[in-house]
Amino acid sequence: MEIREEFRNQRPHQVLQKGTVKELEQKIRNFELGKPSIFIGSSRESLYIAEKVKSLFGDTLFEVDIWDEGVFGKTPSSERGEDPVTGRALSNVEWLKNFTDIYDYAMFLFVPEDKIVSETRVVKNDQGKEIVPMTLGTRHNVVFEFGMFLGRIGAKKTFVLFDKGTTDFIKLFFTDIIENLLDPYDSSYLDPSANYISLYPYESDSSLGSQGASAILDRNLKIAVEKIKKEILLNLETIEITFLPSTTLAIGYFNNFIKIFVENINFLRGFSLLDSLEQKNKLEEIMSKEALNRELRIINSLIKAKGNIMLKIVIPNSLDGAVQNQFTPKFNKEIFKQEEIFGVNRNLTIDRLRNSEKVLHDSLIFYDVPTTMNSSIEALEIINPHKDIKELLSEKERQNFKKVLDFKIAECERSYPEIRKNVEIISWSQFLTEIGQVG
Question: Model pTM?
Fold first, then answer.
């Protein structure tokens, strides 16, 4: 199949030569920097628009890859290339599925390219006469890729940047998203929290094949891209509910450990949200347990006496670092004393810095590494067979676990306004510095 000369794009097609993630190390570093990655999908003929869009994003706050910039590896339909895990070549669909794991956001260019005629529907024109719907529509593979990302990463992370020349295509043939044609920043737009697909229109005064500069196109693209940038930056502040387990694991860890710790140390120090009968019953329960456990009685007395009680949650440098035998050597008995804090159904096992009350006089400092994080490791093994994608997803999980914990702590401030005086999230390197160790 030949492409007409006026629509032919001479840009050389790049192919990823190694692995399944372009610039893997840079993408991992970007998570720490809070710099999201964006995939741009388009037809080959509209790549010149994709290039304009990428330049408008810049490279300071975002990492943007266009589909033909070496993100696809070799496939059976191009050069023979075998996947190192499965021993076979990956299809284009498999590459696209992998991209939904790799990229944080995706944007698709809907431009009027192909004539679409309905064989089964009729519509009425302005004069009320029934006619067969016909319009210029978006290339089918672009719509297909949009659907893949939409299903995998969700409506809040998948954007459509559409030429207003495709409006009739959406109205006549892509009817499921008609209600999303309004500008998300227009006052009449439906509540964006309801997961409506974000469609951002622009106008162009040039034909599809024109590679020349267009003042109208450039101006409209800039307006639309600025809106998308704002939307992405706002979305970065939210926690991620995905098919990966870090959100659930972090909520479970907060509810079953951090929240209980905060509630009980505050109760021991005279602050409680319980009614009088509940307080009486809880006090009796604590006294009963103290009578049977001398160590619990001692630590409860210290909690009551000290002015500053702090639990430091240590986030390891990788999910592997949350495996017990990886971090326990640093929690040696000369530096830490393992304590039991009064819990609900069972006491909380927690490590106390032995000399904290001596060095800081009026403080007790506890440290904990959330071992529940390492549950993500097995999940990643099941989800994706590719080593570099698993490495990338592992960092996503680590960062999201931390973000969810911080979100839950902030949420708890409504009940315990001074919770951040009791709980702090720290890095592994900060932990080593605080206990006077390196490496």
Answer: 0.82
